[in-house]
Amino acid sequence: MFKHQFFMKQTAAAVIAFVLLVVAPVFAVNAQESIWYTGYTEWRTEVQINDQFSIPNTTLRQVSNLSVDLLPDGSVQVMFDLTLSRRNGESTTVNGIIAILIGLVRDDGTVVYSVDDVQTQGSGDPIPTESISFLFISSAWNRYVRGVFREVPRPMEFVVADDAMAARPQG
Q1: To which H or E segment does residue 40 belong?
Q2: Which of 40, 72, 74, 113 could form a disulfide with 101 if both were Cys (CB 3.0 to 4.6 A apart)?
Q3: Distances (CA, A) of 164 to 64, 70, 106, 110
């Protein structure tokens, strides 16, 4: 009986040591990565953005496989597939479009994004990206940002980092 209790105590000590040495540092790293925006009044993580952001489809333009990647330099990468339909019923699909958006902060604290670069990767019909107006991407993103941060008083401090974007009143 004594040996069994000793073995149980050793096993419990080993489990506690494992948790402290292996599992706890994982939580500490995750907390450090996301803690930078705690002083901000509004924020969205990249996961939340991908769940919430959308680009409206029209009868002539269908966007699918949409995803957003926040980049460490403060820009936003929007990736999607695009099907353009013509009035005669023909359509063209381009897969793997990557649009880079950059944000400009106006004097009143309003953030406005514009398309800086568009590239295509992947399969589909090759079409020159210069022939398509990608204004719909920046319009959709600007609407999303305005909606998320509408309650933040202007002028505001706005930050985009690798895992989230956040805003708070200046000062």
Answers
A1: none
A2: 113
A3: 23, 7, 21, 18
